[in-house]
Amino acid sequence: MLAFQGDTAAARARAEEALSLVDPLESRSVHVYARRALGAASAVEGAYEAAYDQLRRCFTADGAPVHYHASYPALADLAAAAVRCGRREDAGEIVERAARVLADDASPRLRALIGRARGLLAGAGPDTGDAESAGDAGDAEAHFRAALADPVLEYWPFERAQTLLDLAERLRRRRRVAEARGPLAEALETFRRLGARPWVERAGSESRAAGLDVTDPAPDALAELSPQQRQIIGLAARGLTNREIGERLFLSPRTVGSHLYRSFPKLGVTARSQLRDLLEGRP
């Protein structure tokens, strides 16, 4: 979450700390989640080769998942990094292996992620400079639309917004600008609602290129806080104590209290009891 919200330093620190505390052979799920976080942080920074290397570690040398449940959700991000660093063939083999192994047992969410991964790998991705045939473009669009067709992605709004953006980028590059605007608007609204700043910037840039008015909404007090501070404020508004917040975020109660102390003046509040009213009605 921290990486997708733009706090790559905090994401990397948490992930590296997790890796230092576990044996990757005994705590495979922790190992995979940490690699996914490091991959996301590198991708946000535009270091796609590094991102691919981290995400590739979620799978064995022959493409099997390191952890059955934790590895497969990395498929789409692996494909996204691959098309930007020339690792399309390797990623494609992993994606297709997963599709064969999972077959009809794949959950709707995993089917959608495999569809997005296939769409990304079907032709030239954005910013690659590669040529793309009409057939490749058609295949990519079909995969993206299939991934979006299942309403299950409504429960995974960030992943749905990523796929919408991928589809829109492909449509705009095929000069189908009018068709791209709907997916772009929905993706941008979702990224804004989730506080995914790097993705807001990417979707905003694509939207401007498609002729959409993407005037930023008026900033609010929460925008001045770091992603971690926003998490803490949200939990405190729900009535959790500093100790309870610390247990959820792997922080000491003292650190939680320090973040609250620094956040209150920025929010214009003086007491914890005011946080609920401050956040009421926000998405």
Structural class: mainly alpha
- The percentage of residues in β strands lies in under 5%
In whole angstroms, how far apart are the ends? 17 Å
What count of helical segments does DSSP give?
15
Inertia-based shape: globular
Q: What is the name of the CATH topology of the largest domain?
A: Serine Threonine Protein Phosphatase 5, Tetratricopeptide repeat
- Elements, N to C (H/E): HHHHHHHHHHHHHHH
Describe the structure.
The structure is a single chain. This protein has 283 residues and is mostly helical. The two termini are 17 Å apart. Helix 6 packs antiparallel against helix 7 (108-122). It has helices at 8-21, 28-44, 48-56, 68-71, 75-85, 88-102, 108-122, 134-149, 157-173, 177-194, 197-209, 227-237, 242-249, 253-267, 275-279. The chain is globular. It contains 15 helices and no strands. The protein folds into 3 domains: 8-130, Serine Threonine Protein Phosphatase 5, Tetratricopeptide repeat (Alpha Horseshoe); 156-217, no CATH class; 221-279, Winged helix-like DNA-binding domain superfamily/Winged helix DNA-binding domain (Arc Repressor Mutant, subunit A, Orthogonal Bundle), CATH 1.10.10.10.
